């Protein structure tokens, strides 16, 4: 099963992607994580992307599609969760073509619906484990033991350089201009499944699990899932 987790910056895509990886053995394909890894490794791609990311603008379609293509060719086992990709119509077309060539398809696009006030709050409080990447929030999702990662026990944490008010303003603008049009694109393809992203991490995870259970149902799974999604607030 291949899923896109869709939504604005801070909606909770990475958090829910990690949950799907843990619970279902899926593979998280986050272009943001790939670009940050390229930066940390000081590759040509990383160097080219760094300034663009710091400004909160989108990296070129060619770069991110190249990263995704390379990763997809390595195989994705139980399926891929695309997180932060696609972000433009060109990327969405490229993803469809790539999956076609690999004899695969996209099963659903899960749209996490979160308002701007919650996004600002979530981004302002975000930090993650420097070793395993687990994502936390100062108030909504602190570590169980202060200063110690729940998952790997590390005591080193990082805050993203682009999680500041100015970059976030730009990232939101990019989202509304270039990424939000994909909602119509995937709705027209019958793949869009909106989920209320305003609840807590567990509540949103439960809504996604319920959606995936409907999708996996033997007959008319997708139609039922979409009906259910449309009925939810
Ligand atoms: P995205 O990948 O969409 O940018 P993240 O998964 O990194 O978003 O989440 C952004 C911040 O919001 C993190 O600090 C995370 O711990 C927190 N967060 C994620 N989901 C929720 C939620 N349902 N309720 C409250 N905070 C959340
Ligand atoms: P994210 O980790 O998803 O919040 O992404 C961080 C930054 O990486 C974004 O603000 C963009 O600069 C860049 N980026 C990540 N994914 C993409 C993508 N699919 N297309 C273009 N730029 C991206």
Which molecules other than protein and nucleic acid are bound?
adenosine-5'-diphosphate, adenosine monophosphate
| Main sheet properties | 5 strands, parallel
- What's the helix count? 10
Mean pLDDT: 93
Give the helix level as a range of percent.
40-55%
Number of β-strand runs: 8
N-to-C SSE string, H for helix and E for strand: EHEHHHEHEHEEEHHEHH
Global shape:
globular
Derived from helix and strand composition plus strand pairing, the structural class reads alpha/beta
Radius of gyration, in angstroms, nearest whole number? 17 Å
β-sheet strand percentage: 5-15%
Descriptive notes:
With 233 residues, the protein is of the alpha/beta class. The chain has ten helices and eight strands. A five-stranded parallel β-sheet has the order 2-3-1-4-8, sandwiched between helices. The chain has a three-stranded antiparallel β-sheet with strand order 6-5-7. α2 (31-40) packs across α3 (44-55) and α9 (201-216) packs antiparallel against α10 (221-231). The longest helix is centred in the C-terminal third of the chain and has 16 residues, at 201-216. The mean pLDDT is 93. Residues 7, 9-15, 122, 125-126, 135-137, 140-141, 199-201, 204 line the site of adenosine-5'-diphosphate.
